[in-house]
Write a structure and sequence with these properties.
Strand content: under 5%
Number of domains: 1
Order of helices and strands: HH
CATH architecture: Orthogonal Bundle
Largest sheet: none
Radius of gyration: 37 Å
Number of strands: 0
Oligomer: single chain
Distance between the termini: 42 Å
Length: about 160
């Protein structure tokens, strides 16, 4: 029986490689998103702590220059938190893009796998037909030889 050869095997391997690469990019994007979320949470905690410290210092009496410095520091913390929030949003978009890319790469690979499976089934059916034909021919030849032997011995 002839061995099955899938002519698009190299293409399928390339698509599998692309899918794995896409999965790695998605994993990295998810990791970056989680890191950005943690940094945002830390920034929000810093802002909250600064507000509490500022309230306590105002209640205990603070100089105008110190109050102004505290306000500037609070503003800087707020800007940093806003920057990190935009970074989280950017990471969310990147994760979605990579997820869509991975879905597309998986679909492309699955199409080739189904084609390979279909061709393998067709090859197996055809090989079965050839084998059955060969067995039928052998049986017919034996039967013919048996009949030819009876005819020759009967004369």
């Amino acid at each position: 029986m002839k061995r099955f050869i899938f002519r698009l095997q190299k293409v399928m391997e390339l698509r599998k490689w692309r899918e794995r690469f896409s999965q790695q990019k998605l994993s990295k994007a998810q990791h970056d998103r989680e890191t950005a979320r943690k940094e945002l949470q830390e920034s929000l905690t810093d802002v909250s702590n600064q507000h509490e410290n500022q309230k306590q210092r105002i209640n205990s009496g603070i100089k105008a220059g110190d109050a102004l410095a505290e306000a500037r520091y609070t503003q800087r913390l707020l800007k940093e938190a806003a920057l990190r929030e935009r970074e989280v949003e950017h990471c969310e978009l990147a994760v979605e893009e990579h997820r869509d890319d991975l879905v597309e790469k998986s679909r492309e690979r699955k199409i080739l796998e189904k084609l390979r499976e279909r061709q393998l089934n067709e090859h197996s059916v055809e090989a079965g037909r050839r084998e059955q034909k060969s067995m039928d021919d052998d049986a017919a030849r034996r039967h013919h030889n048996i009949l030819a032997g009876k005819v020759n011995s009967g004369s």
